[in-house]
Amino acid sequence: MTNYFKITQILKDFILGTMLGDGSFETQTRGKTWRYRVNHSLKEEAYVLHQYEILKSLRTDTPPRHYTDKKGYHTVSFDTRTSPSLRFYAKMFYKFDDTTKRWVKRVPLKLEKFLTPRAIAYRKRLYK
Question: Phi, psi (5° rounding) for residue 48?
Answer without folding.
Answer: -60, -45
